[in-house]
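sry for the spam today, last one i promise. struct tokens for design, 228 residues
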């Protein structure tokens, strides 16, 4: 379970997060919706301690990342698979090496096992047989799927998705959403998705929040506001 308590962050006069609080229960995918520039990426980074906050904390199974030691932060982050906005794949590495990176960096897994794990991860995201390709030859949607596979490499307890379907065509959006929903059932079941895409939010979210002017509200209470 992840508890976000009163998280506040400002950049000079710009208040991005204003006492943001919500919970991600086990087996639940929470969506935070918000227009561009509203603070969605800042929220994810703040939750992982990648960005210092002015106030508040994010607790992972009761442990506050804001007051954790470097070692504890490392252990918490190992439990989180992060699908970055824009994928952050390395262009100089093929798909297999991109997915293998967390395994080579953080484990002593023998290379044969790494290759098997990469094949398995590619299978999970519907990209079997694409291990040898380089990112520049992949479509935007395929890159997202590879980024999801890489986020899964260390078998994380939580998945954080930053804009997983933005700028994808409807068919590829469906595919990514399908993979996210399959993962909910079969693998990492908890996490957070930040997006400005309402259809994606509805398709994957167990709970949906809206982030607006620094404040977060549960969608059910502000449905009218969304469509105004
Ligand atoms: N390091 C920083 N220094 C100053 N301002 C920042 C910094 N990072 C983010 N901001 C500002 O905080 C606000 C929220 O940024 P953020 O990237 O979280 O938006 P977002 O909701 O993820 O937008 P998008 O949908 O375009 O990805 C923006 O106004 C941005 O300019
Ligand atoms: Mg963003």
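last one done:
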């Amino acid at each position: 379970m992840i508890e976000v308590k009163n998280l506040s962050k400002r950049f000079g006069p710009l208040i991005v997060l204003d006492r943001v609080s919500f919970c991600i229960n086990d087996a639940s995918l929470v969506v935070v919706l918000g227009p561009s520039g509203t603070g969605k990426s800042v929220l994810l980074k703040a939750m992982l301690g990648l960005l210092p906050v002015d106030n508040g904390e994010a607790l992972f199974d009761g442990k506050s990342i804001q007051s954790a030691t470097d070692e504890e932060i490392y252990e918490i982050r190992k439990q989180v698979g992060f699908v970055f906005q824009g994928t952050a794949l390395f262009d100089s590495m093929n798909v297999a090496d991109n997915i293998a990176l967390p395994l080579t960096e953080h484990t002593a897994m023998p290379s044969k096992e790494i290759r098997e794990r990469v094949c398995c991860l590619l299978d999970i995201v519907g990209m079997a047989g694409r291990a040898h390709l380089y990112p520049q030859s992949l479509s935007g949607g395929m890159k997202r799927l590879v980024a999801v596979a890489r986020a899964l490499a260390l078998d994380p307890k939580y998945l954080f998705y930053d804009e997983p379907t933005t700028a994808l065509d409807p068919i590829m959006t469906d595919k990514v959403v399908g993979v996210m929903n399959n993962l909910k059932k079969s693998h990492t079941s908890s996490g957070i998705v930040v997006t400005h895409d309402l259809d994606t939010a509805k398709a994957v979210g167990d709970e949906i929040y809206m982030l607006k002017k620094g404040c977060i509200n549960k969608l059910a209470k502000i449905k009218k506001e969304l469509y105004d």
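The pocket of magnesium ion (ligand 2) is lined by residues 40-41, 85, 162-163 (CB under 6 Å). ok im logging off now
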